[in-house]
Every structure is written in structure tokens, then in C-alpha cells.
Amino acid sequence: MAQQIILSVEDVHQHFGRFAALNGVSLQVEEGRLTALIGPNGAGKTTLYNVVCGRYRPRAGRVVFLGRDVTGLPPHRLCALGLGRSFQITNVFSRLTVLENILVPLIIKNGGALCFWRRLDRDRKLEATAMKVLAMVGLVDKAHVGVHELPYGDKRLVEMAIALAPSPRMVLLDEPTAGMNPEETEHMIRLIKSLADTHRTNFFITEHDMKVVFSVADYIYVLHQGSVLAQGTPEEIRADRRVKEAYLGGSLEP
Ligand SMILES: Nc1ncnc2c1ncn2[C@@H]1O[C@H](COP(=O)(O)OP(=O)(O)OP(=O)(O)O)[C@@H](O)[C@H]1O
Ligand SMILES: [Mg+2]
Question: All domains of the chain, ordered by start, with CATH?
Fold first, then answer.
């Protein structure tokens, strides 16, 4: 039976002035198939994510999410439809505790306003949900620690938890292991795999670290100079001559 298409990017063009950052990109993310987007620096990966998550309205083309044309919808509308994302540069509320960071998206999802004159953790039901999300990423012990006190790897886990909190159908992760040490990277790889397997979270990730890509991805798209250069299983991508050339021969080996 054919798998459901979660995300379909159709012939998307994005320009910055006269520069074509995306030049007719088409790709799909299927339910249950952990999909990665790779490519050299400046290939257009983050730009494509910004188009998918509604930060940019493309000059041409469509973004279809769960069967619905969402091209140009603002990020908060896409989030409400089930699209989560984490950023290439860590994006958390440093002055709040870990738990409060997870409560923010839950309160917003439940239609509540953020009232900073009262404690964020007043609602016990939401707090219980937030603790479940923290358990998913292994941060229960640090629930009441200020995010600014955490090591870098844990901050990225908080970011992942913020993306997971509203129970999204798909999560975009832009370089989830960027800047991590080998131990933190290993932990993140295990986490992504287990969330995909156990919680059936659909991930669409970009990543420079080929060890990460080849160990987590079921399917890979290679972006080069704003166009899809190749697509296939990790084995097919590893063997693709054009891909090797695009990476100038070195970094494809995990
Ligand atoms: N807001 C912007 N204004 C102008 N040019 C931009 C803007 N954002 C990206 N670009 C350019 O578009 C191209 C693609 O950038 P993008 O950040 O999408 O690449 P990337 O594949 O994510 O790279 P990296 O691997 O370094 O994160 C680059 O040449 C970049 O300089
Ligand atoms: Mg990028």
C-alpha cells in the first residue's frame, strides 16, 4: 500500500533580489520515512525550510502539507496544522526554566494567552503533558533548571522538546547536531531514531554530518545550488558520482 505523503514541495522557486536560492525544487516526505536534505554550504537547505514553514512565500511553486496547499501560510498557522520545526541556530527562552519553555507552545496551542505576571506552570494538566515531552527527550531531571544554565547539547534538546510539544505530524530539524560534541551527537542520533520508531514522529532533517545522515535517514535528497541534484536511499546516494563531485570528494564518507 502506498504511504501517505506528509509534505510535498512542488517546483518551488525562491529569489533574493536577482539571486535564485531555490530553482524549481520538488520533493516529498512520506509517512514513516525519515527524510534528510543534504547539500554543501549555501545549497539552499535553510531557505527551503523557511519556505516550508511559512517564513518565506516562494516566488513560484507550491507547498502541500497533509494534502492541503499551505504555500505562504504564516508559521503559527502551519504550527496549528501540525508542522513543528527547530532552527539551525538554537532558539530557546534562556531566562525560563526547561519546563516553562515546553509550556509556552502548549499554552499557545490550547488557546491561552501568556500571562507573565502569573507563573507559567499553574495549569497542572499542561504541566503533566510537558513532563511527558521532557521524558521523551530525557530532560525530566532538568525540568526546573534555567535554560541558560544548561550545556549546549541540552539546549538543543529543549529546542527539540519545544517542537515536539504540540504533537506535530512532522518536524523539520535544521542541523540538529550542529556544534555538538561526539557524545551529544550520538545521543541526538539515538533520540531521533527512537522518536521516529516509538512515537511515529515524521522527521525531515538537514545535516552536514554524514555519519548522522547515513545512520538516521531512510531517504535522502541532495540539494546543490538551489536544485535537487539526486535523491535515493543512503546506499544510492553514497554511490552517486554527481553527489561525490558536488561535495568535492571528501566529506561524503561517514
Ligand atoms: N535572507 C537572505 N538574503 C539574501 N541571500 C540569502 C538569504 N538567505 C540565504 N541567502 C543565500 O541563499 C543561498 C542559500 O542559503 P541557505 O542558508 O539556504 O543555504 P544552506 O544550504 O542552508 O547552507 P548551510 O549549509 O551553510 O546552512 C546562499 O547563497 C545564501 O547566501
Ligand atoms: Mg542552512
Answer: 1-82+168-254 (3.40.50.300), 91-167 (no CATH)
